[in-house]
Amino acid sequence: MPTATLVNGLDVDNLMKVVGAVKANWEKGKTVWKASTTWKGGFKVETCSRDFKLLADEPEMLCGTNTAANPVEMILQAYGACLSIGYAMNAAVRGIKLDDIKIDLEGEIDLPGFLGLEAPENLNMAKLPGFKNITVNVKIKSQTDNKTLQELHQHVLGTSPVGVTLSRPVAIKATLES
């Protein structure tokens, strides 16, 4: 039995099979991902995707109990995780061995929009409740030259599903049942 070609802990042969399967049948590229949430009282929420559960809460400064990350922190976490996965995968298929990936993310949100308030104009606070900007600092340790890492970096930024989602409007349809 042949052994797998592992780069960065990933089976490159398997990755290439997935890519080949999508290239051979583009319909396999259409995927649907699901999540559900259950309110647990106060600001505590349990989220679930497949068999995996996460908790959300708000910090004490927003009247939460600080038992878990809040949803906007989870967005930053999701983007960082998506980028890390993208670096590991794309480096592996290029034969680039990575020693470490560390990503720090920071996003600015003005609370007045979330609270339904309109801040004084001289404070330059957005009227919308979402992120105004997100800063990402990627640190990669590798024996690979900087030019190759920069090419990898640009490719990963351009193909990150979470990053692309954050950078453009997405149609949202919401219904209410009571």
Helix count equals 5
Average pLDDT? 92
Give the helix proportion (percent range): 25-40%
Largest sheet: 3 strands, antiparallel
End-to-end separation in angstroms reads 57 Å
Principal-axis shape equals globular
**Alpha-beta content class:** alpha+beta
The low-pLDDT segments are none
Q: If you compute it from the alpha carbons, what radius of gyration comes out, rounded to the nearest whole angstrom?
A: 20 Å
H/E element sequence: EEHEEEHEHEHH
List the helices and strands and how they pair.
Elements: E1 6-7, E2 10-11, H1 12-24, E3 36-39, E4 45-49, E5 52-56, H2 71-93, E6 98-109, H3 111-114, E7 131-142, H4 146-159, H5 161-166
Antiparallel strand pairs: 1-2, 3-4, 4-5, 6-7
Can you put this structure into words, describing what you see?
There is one protein chain. With 178 residues, the chain is of the alpha+beta class. It has helices spanning 12-24, 71-93, 111-114, 146-159, 161-166; strands at 6-7, 10-11, 36-39, 45-49, 52-56, 98-109, 131-142. The strands form three sheets. Strands 3-4-5 form a three-stranded antiparallel β-sheet, with no helix packed on it.
List keywords for this structure.
two-stranded antiparallel sheet, 34% helix, 178 residues, alpha+beta, three-stranded antiparallel β-sheet, 5 helices
Provide a brief overview of the structure.
With 178 residues, this protein is of the alpha+beta class.
